[in-house]
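Hi there,

I know you've been waiting on this one. I reran it after we fixed the sequence typo, so this is the corrected version. Both the input and the resulting structure follow.
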Amino acid sequence: MPIYEYRCPNGHVFELFQRMGEAAPPKCEICGEGPVERVLYPVAVHFKGSGFYSTDYGRGSRKKEPSIDGAGGDSDSGSKKDADKKSETKAAEA
């Protein structure tokens, strides 16, 4: 069972050990004023493991796509390398 923190209209803060579905107390335990409201705090979230950073995605599994305008340095050099390999194999066969 969790411990909940409540605040009354006069600013008093107190804690109650109660079930999650249980209703808030009708009045403050210190001064008797009501209604009280549950105080909420942000939850600490820690992302651990692979896959949470942009550098973790696509580790070499994505193929580089040629650029649309044909001005990509990788696509030109790749086609030159392929042409060189073809000419070498033709020369070796002859």
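Quick highlight: Residues 73-93 form the longest helix (21 residues).

Best,
R. S.
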